[in-house]
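Hi, here's the filled form for the chain we discussed.

Project: internal
Contact: R.S.
Residues: 276
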Amino acid sequence: MSRAREALEERVQSAIWQESIMRWESAVVLALTAMLTTFSALGLPLVEFVPYWGWLLGGLVAEAGLVYSSVRDPEFGRQVVSKMLKNEFKPERLKDKRLQRQINEALDYRSRIEKGIRERSDSVLKDELMQTAGQIDDWLENIYDLARRIDRYQQEREILHRDRVRAESRMKQLQADFARANDPAIKEQIQATLNSIERQLQTLQTLEATIQRARLQLENSLTHLGTIYSQTMLVDAKDIDRGSARRLRHEIAEEVTELNDLLHSMDEVYTAESVG
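And the returned structure, exactly as it came back:
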């Protein structure tokens, strides 16, 4: 088993075991076991015909069967992974409702891919797909970071628009002042101020263009993720020999790199805007 699969499998299995033990059905079984065991030990009617250890043993067997069936159930695994991802990425932190829906859609794809992996019986294929899922987790981190950047811009959009309108108006005034000024020192100071305003406007324009690119990239990533999900579900054992699953991982790696570059560009723009 590869290190990537071991790390991902350990994280997912831990969450599945925890949820299988904490589900409400388990609570009912444990409560009934404790109650019947206690009543039998006290010799109460209706339960005294079974020794207390019989109720205890039966409850433990029932609980073990419930946990085992939960761990083996792909749909239960999908639900656990979905909950785990939502706790990790927290779409509700995004103010924009559309961004929330997009992130929830991405997380749903990931949880369904997990279900598909758990339904596979071929170990080689399962290992390939598990590594693909690990890369998708990296991809999701970048998608969520991208959504947070866009959401931040959405919250600051009015202020940024105000700054741009103010800068454009002030530039026109300074250009008129520069044309009327006769003192070289004043002209020099006006020109320095104009240069600063031009840099500010350029940064704001770059930021707006970058956000527009980010929105399109986020939409494209979701579309691509849906395509990856479809391809992952269609992959069968003979496709592994042709390298189909490996090509999937290559496509995802390229997507992760592209998003990393975009996030880096956005950080640079925000840094420049802050300095300006």
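Let me know if anything looks off before we file it.
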